[in-house]
C-alpha cells in the first residue's frame, strides 16, 4: 500500500488534482494507469481513496471514491532543535521523529550553532516522504529557522523543557512528560550559559534525556520517543 | 575530552602501544605531541589516562598514569537485526544504539532480507567511533552475519522477543521488558510466516514496538531505547 501527498483537497472534493512532482512519480516512475486505485493524504488527517482519471505526468487527476478522516493526535509534541552541521544527520532526525510521532518542529539558531543556513524545502520533502512511508496522514509542521531568543519570547503553548549538558538541577524527561510538550535540543556545543539562563527565566524546565552524552540528532529522537513511549504506557 | 580506542591493554599495562590507525589519527591529524595527556579505552570497561611517550604515526606509545575501571552494565541487551539494503541506514542504527546503550548486535539473514552481504569491518569501525564519541568504555559485541534458523537454534541467554508486523497476539515491548533482553528485528519485508512460527516454537515472545509501522533501523532504535528507558524508570 502506497500513499501519496497532495495538500489541496478536503472532504468536499470530488476530484483531486495532484501536484506536478507527485504526478510525475505516479505517471513516469510507477507507471500507474487510468482506472488504477490510489490513496492520497492531504497531510491534515484526511485520506482519500480514488481512481485515476488522468495520468498526465504533470497533472494527474483522481476521482474520489471515499474519505477516511483521522482524529488529531491527543498529545502535541513540539521539538525545537539546532540543525546539525551535517545535513544528513538532521534529515535523519526529521525522518525518524515523523515515524515515531511528532506534530511540530522548529529549527533554532543558537550561539554555538554549527549550521546557520538551512534547506527548508528539502527538509519539507523529507517530512513528506517520512509521513507517506509511515502511512501517516498528519504532516509535522516545520517552522522557519528561528533565533533562540526570538523563539523563547514567542507565544509558546506546551509545557516547556530544555535539555542541556551543563551542571545544575535537572529532572529526567521520562519523569516529567506532560500532555503537550515543547522540548528544546541544543547544538553540538550545547546551549550557552546565557541561553540556558534565559530559558529558565521563561519557565523552561531543565531536563536530562540520558545517562550518556548524546549527539544532537540522537537527543532529538530520544526526546521524541520518550514522550511517545510514556504516553503509551 | 577525546577518547581513543586500543583493545590490547589491561590494568597491568604500564606502557600502551597504540594501533596504526589510531596512531595516525593522534600523530598526523590531531598533531599531538610527546608529553600530551591522552585518554584510551580498551573497549572492555577500562579507561587509561596517560602521557604520550612517542607520537610515531604508526605506533604511538603512551605511559599510563592511572586506570579507571567501569562496572559491566547491569542489564544485557542483544539485538538481532536484518541489515538494510541501504548501508547508511544500518550504520545509523549501529551508531545510535551504541549512543543509547547496547551490549551485543547480530546481523541476521532472513528470507526477505534485502542485504545478503555485509561490511563487517566497516560496521566495527562505526561501533568504535560511536563508543568513543559517547565517552563509553564498552564496545558492543558485533557478531557475524548469521542465518535466521542458525540464530534461532543457537545458545541464547536472554529473554527472547521477536518484533513482527503480521497479525496475531503481541504484547507491547514496554510492558514486558526483562532484565536481559534479546530482540529480533526483521527486514523491510518483515519476517516470513515460517520464520515467525519457528521463533514462537522456540519461546520467542511476539512484541509490538509502536502503533505505526517503523522502518527496520527505526525499529532497532525504538527497541533499544524502550529497553534503556524502562530500566531507567
Automatic annotation (TrEMBL), chains A, B:
The keyword Transferase applies. Keywords: Cytoplasm, Methyltransferase, rRNA processing, S-adenosyl-L-methionine, Transferase. It is found in: Cytoplasm. It catalyses: uridine(1498) in 16S rRNA + S-adenosyl-L-methionine = N(3)-methyluridine(1498) in 16S rRNA + S-adenosyl-L-homocysteine + H(+). Its EC number is 2.1.1.193. Residues 18-65 form the Ribosomal RNA small subunit methyltransferase E PUA-like domain. NCBIfam families: PRK11713.6-1 (NF008702), RsmE family RNA methyltransferase (TIGR00046). This is Ribosomal RNA small subunit methyltransferase E. It comes from Psychroflexus salinarum.
Amino acid at each position: 500500500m502506497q500513499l501519496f501527498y497532495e495538500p489541496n483537497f478536503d472532504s468536499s472534493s470530488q476530484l483531486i488534482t495532484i501536484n506536478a512532482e507527485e504526478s510525475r512519480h505516479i505517471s513516469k516512475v510507477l507507471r500507474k494507469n487510468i482506472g488504477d486505485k490510489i490513496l492520497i493524504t492531504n497531510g491534515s488527517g484526511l485520506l482519500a481513496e480514488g481512481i485515476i482519471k488522468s495520468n498526465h505526468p504533470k497533472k494527474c487527476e483522481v476521482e474520489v471514491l471515499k474519505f477516511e478522516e483521522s482524529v488529531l493526535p491527543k498529545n502535541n509534541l513540539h521539538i525545537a532543535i539546532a540543525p546539525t552541521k551535517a545535513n544528513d544527520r538532521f534529515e535523519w532526525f526529521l525522518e525518524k521523529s515523523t515515524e515515531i510521532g511528532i506534530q511540530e518542529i522548529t529549527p533554532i539558531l543558537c550561539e554555538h550553532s554549527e549550521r546557520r543556513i538551512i534547506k527548508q524545502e528539502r527538509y519539507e520533502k523529507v517530512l513528506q516522504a517520512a509521513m507517506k512511508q509511515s502511512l501517516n496522514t498528519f504532516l509535522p509542521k516545520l517552522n522557519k529557522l528561528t533565533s533562540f531568543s526570538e523563539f523563547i519570547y514567542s507565544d509558546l503553548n506546551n509545557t516547556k523543557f530544555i535539555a542541556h549538558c551543563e551542571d545544575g538541577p535537572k529532572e529526567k524527561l521520562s519523569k516529567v512528560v506532560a500532555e503537550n510538550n515543547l522540548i528544546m535540543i541544543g547544538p553540538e556545543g550545547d546551549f550557552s550559559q546565557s541561553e540556558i539562563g534565559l530559558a529558565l527565566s521563561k519557565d523552561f524546565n531543565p531536563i536530562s534525556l540520558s545517562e550518556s552524552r548524546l549527539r544532537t540528532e540522537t537527543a532529538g529522537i530520544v526526546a521524541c520517543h520518550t514522550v511517545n513511549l510514556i504516553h503509551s504506557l
